């Protein structure tokens, strides 16, 4: 708390006189993830994984046999955070490929953001068999929705605890760290320069989502408001919304209702493909 108070004080003072400098420091912090080790409960699943390396050095873990489901974790996340869902999918007869996003795990890079994650999904999909589904958590969920706009093909998709648009995330980060108005504006400009896309365009309300989908969120998520899931669901015509009473931002991944809802979605997607054949 003392460190955060100090950062806010520095940002609040210097942000008026040197907004570009403060914005640059905060931009680097915003895009530079820590590589956090797996928790003890993740280790058994990690031990059973096959590690694969895709083109451009992208690292992933693979389990099971059958139609392929591609997973993308969130900011400072890990593939094995999906442990309960991975077990469910493998038992149901699927191959699960879980990426380590850019600058995470053994994948290359020093910085990460939603555009890099979306490109990683596209790169992975180009090397994998046709995807039964693609599933993302938090920033990984936002990157799944973006990658679908850029040509990612799958029979179904799942967004878990994801934000609906990037601009709100940036504004919230800037306010949380005490940046004054000029520094906040400079921060957003610098992020746009780095990601190469206007952040206003990274908004699900602008997207065309024409595949079956599932939007999952916990009402008590303190990092990404559950209201974001309502926005995603509203923009995604062929989606179902599952709003859980509790689960926070991370524990929602272990909820058995998530695995069951994903299997139901996959069955619905298969039926849709058969009907259109």
Automatic annotation (TrEMBL):
<protein>
    <submittedName>
        <fullName>Alpha/beta fold hydrolase</fullName>
    </submittedName>
</protein>
<feature type="domain" description="Serine aminopeptidase S33">
    <location>
        <begin position="68"/>
        <end position="162"/>
    </location>
</feature>
<dbReference type="InterPro" id="IPR050228">
    <property type="entry name" value="Carboxylesterase_BioH"/>
</dbReference>
<keyword id="KW-0378">Hydrolase</keyword>
<dbReference type="InterPro" id="IPR029058">
    <property type="entry name" value="AB_hydrolase_fold"/>
</dbReference>
<dbReference type="InterPro" id="IPR022742">
    <property type="entry name" value="Hydrolase_4"/>
</dbReference>
<dbReference type="GO" id="GO:0016787">
    <property type="term" value="F:hydrolase activity"/>
</dbReference>
<dbReference type="Pfam" id="PF12146">
    <property type="entry name" value="Hydrolase_4"/>
</dbReference>
């Amino acid at each position: 708390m003392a460190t955060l108070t100090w950062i806010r004080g520095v940002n609040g003072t210097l942000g008026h006189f040197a907004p570009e400098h403060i914005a640059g420091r905060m931009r680097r912090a915003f895009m530079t993830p820590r590589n956090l080790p797996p928790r003890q409960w993740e280790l058994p699943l990690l031990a059973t994984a096959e590690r694969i390396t895709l083109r451009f050095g992208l690292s992933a873990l693979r389990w099971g046999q059958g139609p392929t489901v591609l997973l993308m974790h969130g900011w400072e996340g890990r593939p094995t955070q999906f442990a309960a869902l991975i077990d469910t999918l493998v038992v149901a007869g699927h191959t699960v490929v879980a990426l380590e996003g850019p600058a995470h795990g053994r994948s290359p890079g020093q910085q990460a953001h939603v555009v890099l994650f979306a490109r990683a999904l596209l790169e992975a999909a180009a090397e994998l068999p046709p995807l039964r589904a693609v599933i993302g958590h938090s920033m990984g969920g936002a990157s799944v929705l973006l990658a679908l706009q850029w040509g990612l093909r799958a029979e179904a998709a799942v967004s878990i605890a994801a934000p609906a648009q990037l601009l709100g995330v940036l504004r919230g980060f800037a306010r949380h760290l005490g940046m004054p108005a000029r520094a906040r504006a400079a921060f957003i400009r610098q992020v746009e320069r780095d990601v190469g896309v206007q952040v206003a365009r990274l908004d699900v309300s602008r997207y065309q989502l024409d595949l079956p989908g599932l939007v999952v969120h916990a009402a008590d998520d303190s990092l990404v408001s559950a209201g974001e899931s309502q926005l995603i669901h509203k923009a995604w015509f062929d989606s179902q919304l599952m709003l859980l009473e509790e689960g926070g931002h991370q524990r929602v991944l272990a909820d058995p209702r998530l695995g069951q809802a994903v299997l139901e979605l996959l069955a619905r997607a298969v039926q849709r493909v058969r009907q259109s054949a």
